[in-house]
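Annex B. Sample input.
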Amino acid sequence: MKARRMALVVFVGLMHAALVFMPAPASVQAGESNTIRLIAPNAPGSSVDFTARLMSNGLSKVLGKNVVVENLPGAGGVVGTQQLVKAPKDGFTIGMCSDNHVITPHIYKSVPFDPLKDITPISILGVNTFVLVANPQLPASNIQELIKLAKSKPGKLTYGSAGNGSALHLATALFTSEADVDINHVAFKGGGELAANIMGGHVDMGVLGLSSVQANIKAGKLRALAVLASKRSANLPDVPTIVEAGLPKYDYTSWIALTAPGNLPKSIVDRLNAAALEVLKSKEVREGFAAQSIEIVGSTPEEARRMFETDFVKKGEIVKKSGAKVD
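Annex B, continued. Sample output.
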């Protein structure tokens, strides 16, 4: 009997050891948690928040984990991103960001992380479609007429933005630079306030996300002058791109990316990237992105890394020209 009990103890011990050293399941990596935090460093209703929530459903299915979106807005994305970079490098905390991630280090005196070294880009998921809109009473129905009007009244016209140093600010500042016109900048607290002030005639024009103003354009409350994209939008097919409108060197890309803490192990990066690309193929996501005028990209981690690095330099140059700063 003692021999049998001893044999049973040894058997149970061996089985326990085998279970401990079994390979991790193919979800993200080994771990007891069944929940993945997806940090969105923006307020609910933003394009980043929309993308995070749309992607989270598919990621939950593909990864076999419950992916929960956590909004941590503040300081142009710095608050949420700071939490992301401090998280364990285990794949159970991931993030979503826009190109504001590479803009804020240029407009704030300092940020508590390195925007390139402390982040692992997983994939550029999509590109936002911006549109330059004007108050319908402004005597300019296209870009060339706007440029002519601005040159005839230097410093008299105004453009609004969603905040000093925001993507909407820089996209418009780049337009004024390329068009060589002097138009005064007025900062508002968000895209909704900006749109209301353009429609109300308090500022003459501004750049906004197409999805947020499409209804007002069709209702005649805003006049679309040009789409700031490489090709015309299916949601606004009669409006030319800004390149077609006569500014061939204009190039501003506002992207949305899936990210993770810096130096994430390659095996986890590859798994998250594969999951993201699979989710981007789903009908739900394709239709959701199309409705929001977001063009699907779906890059590799290497391509995403290059976009972060090149855009960090490019957006920094635009910030310098615009003089945008946040104390």
